[in-house]
Amino acid sequence: ESASSDNDRLSWATETAEVGPTGDGNARPAGWAPAIALSPSEAVHVLHARYDGDGTVLRHAERGSDGTWSWETVDDDGSTEFHPALAIDAAGTIHAVYRNGTPAMLTYASRVGGVWSKQVIAPSEVPAQGAALALDRSGNVHVAFEHPVTNRQWETAPGLRYARRDAAEGSWALETIDSFGTGVDLVVDDTGSVAVSYLQSD
Fold this sequence. Notes:
Layout: E1 2-5, E2 12-15, E3 31-38, E4 44-51, E5 56-63, E6 69-78, E7 81-88, E8 94-100, E9 105-112, E10 115-120, E11 131-135, E12 141-150, E13 156-165, E14 172-178, E15 182-188, E16 194-199
Antiparallel strand pairs: 1-2, 3-4, 4-5, 5-6, 7-8, 8-9, 9-10, 11-12, 12-13, 13-14, 15-16
């Protein structure tokens, strides 16, 4: 579902972007974990995971100027999981980050000229549920994500990682922010400085 309100915030209008199939009998909904963004033309874009019979796929829906929705499959690997992140740059290029594959890998997808391309951010790492995405003015992609590590009690805990995609080269550079971090989000200012917020525990 998509909802919007007028400026006085007195009323909301809801509409259905896409009707998915039924769940798989294991309390899994037909669709979940939506992310939303506006294009430069103020078109609404929604990204979400959806159960599709044999597994889960990543879907993208776009609301046209006439109020109708169109949708497409971004990734039909069958193992898309958890909450995707979505951003749209000034040129209208759509950027998405999500967990996908077996074993699960942090994946980046972008749509240019109506064509989606995918790139694995961290082939040797298995990110946890949380990932956040932001773009800077130069077109570089910034991602903060939770990555399972082993803490001193030999239990799995989410470490906090950061990845940056160079717009010119298309390559990713990764680094560790903290040994523990969950509930992650990030922003990038006009100078390219990155700020990350997260929950930290001793």
